[in-house]
Specification:
Length: about 325
Amino acid sequence: MKASIRNKYGSPDVINLTTSSHIPFPQKDEILVKVKATTVNRSDCGVLTGRPWAIRLFTGLFEPRLKVTGTDFSGVVVSKGVDVNKFNIGDDVYGFFDQGIGSHASYFCVSTKKAILKKPGNITYEQAAASLEGAHYAFYFLDKVVLKKGDKVLLNGGTGAIGSAALQFLKYRGIHVTVTCETDYIPVLESMGADMVIDYTKEDFTKLNEKFDFVFDAVGKSTFWKCKPIMKPNTIYVSSELGPYWQNPLLALFAPLMKGKKVKFPLPFSIERSMAYINELIEKDKFRPLIDQRYPISEIRDAFEYVMSGKKKGNVIVTFD
């Protein structure tokens, strides 16, 4: 069994890949999963580095409580505890927990109280693992915004895990989506249903001569103030990042006192709720995750380095023998 282990917060250099003949044994409410695929994502990077510092309130103040990295997975149930009735040996499953679940391992035990579902048969293990973290956040960033069919949305950053999921979720709802990306990915986003694609290397979307019903900055590289000129009166701006000086949650806090254009900063709570929605769209063939690079577990450090470089598009997969 191989596992990605770290004993302290830090860069990918603190990770050690261990090999052992020991396979964990599930407790009464747990299943033992043989992992087929997982990802390295932004949540993984936060859990690895312990930054922003607020994450340590959940993962361990001075050192990580869970030594094995990994927040999502897809795989096969190979054993289960005596109290587990929801899953059977041989079931294909997938799941996610943003505070760390220890899934960067050939085998791992997970409580059935976590957000786990049976994998739909119309996607691969890699697609299942890639359908979780970014799509979970996309669901909640869109959840608190009231939109009707035909409304116009500006989506900044359509090639990330969050942005590519948000694009498909919006199109499923009948929304007209203008999305930004770099030149090479224009055909990809058009194939996902984008109504208009703007090459941000050639054009500044905040200078468009058009007004939108909602602006979603899925990469957090713009600001509310820059986007105000393209927002219709009484519309909402949402960013996936805190913004300079944590301005986005602060502006959202004062939103009830503001008139006209406002900022919302939705918080992702129930993973079970977002996964149920994601699972439904997968089964309807209305959502497929964007996948970028694939790394074997032996190159887990390289996978983290690549994600932390800010160059990734969609999801980065980690595979096992």
